[in-house]
Specification:
With about 250 residues, this protein is an alpha/beta fold. It has nine helices and eleven strands. The chain has two domains: about 130 residues, no CATH class; about 90 residues, no CATH class. The chain binds iron/sulfur cluster.
Length: about 250
């Protein structure tokens, strides 16, 4: 379900360490990740459907941002924290792109996080920023796992290809390997390492939301702390010197 809404504010103060402001041009996310931490947003929208089945497009986001950005001091802006800024509806609404166009003349550091290669569309804009980084979330090397845990999100290989293009174009890139899903750590590290400046790694922190998926696939052993630690170690080793931070 797609709905057009108007936001009251768009550049909101952030509690995320190292992030001063967040911009979320959409509420809801068609990527429909089973573990999504952002599903609490449902209670602000009146939607009763499952997370992933609705998206609200904040159609006034760019005009609102034009007013708000002048009142903010510099700092780091994250795009986005509770939605994916390049989910499919962005093709039509271009709210993320238009927000970036508003931000470009101002002195903010911008950090983009997405699972979608649609981010490549805006590479021309990235050149206008003196400090911008693009992170792509890649939680596994196994596209079968992706289909079970992130049914609406783009295939893993498309995300890796996007990182490759961004990195080759000189854009600062990072991979967010989180939450760790069942994977071959060495294979994933080998695919990512050539195309990133750094990596963030996080464990599965949303077990109650995903337990049924793990159980149905007989994969609950992947939730053991020892297994998670082992995967993290093997990822770091496989990254072969690329700086990795554990969340
Ligand atoms: S892409 Fe991010 S915001 Fe969207 S459903 Fe997945 S985890 Fe949630």
């Amino acid at each position: 379900m797609l709905r057009e809404t108007t936001a009251k504010s768009i550049m909101t103060r952030s509690q995320i360490p190292g992030v001063d402001y967040c911009i979320n041009p959409y509420t809801g996310c068609a990527h429909a990740c089973r573990y999504c931490y952002a599903d609490f947003m449902k209670r602000f929208t009146g939607h009763t459907g499952r997370w992933g089945s609705f998206v609200d497009a904040k159609v006034n986001a760019p005009t609102l941002l034009e007013k708000e950005v002048r009142r903010k001091k510099g700092g780091t802006v994250m795009i986005s924290s509770v939605t994916d800024p390049y989910q499919p509806v962005e093709k039509k609404y271009r709210l993320t792109r238009r927000c970036l166009e508003v931000l470009a003349p101002h002195r903010f550091s911008v950090s983009i996080l997405t699972k979608s290669p649609l981010v490549l569309r805006d590479m021309d804009l990235f050149e206008r920023f003196s400090d911008i980084e693009v992170g792509i979330t890649i939680t596994t090397d196994d596209d079968g796992m992706r289909k079970r845990f992130e049914p609406g999100a783009p295939p893993i290989q498309e995300r890796i290809n996007a990182l490759k293009k961004l990195y080759a174009a000189g854009v600062s890139t990072y991979a967010f390997i989180g939450p760790i899903l069942p994977m071959n750590p060495e294979r994933l590290a080998k695919k990512i390492a050539p195309h990133v400046d750094s990596v963030l790694i996080d464990r599965m922190n949303y077990v109650p939301k995903t337990l049924q998926v793990y159980r149905s696939m007989k994969l609950t052993s992947w939730l053991d702390d020892d297994v998670t630690e082992d995967v993290m170690e093997r990822l770091i080793k496989g990254l072969d010197g690329i700086p990795a931070t554990l969340c």
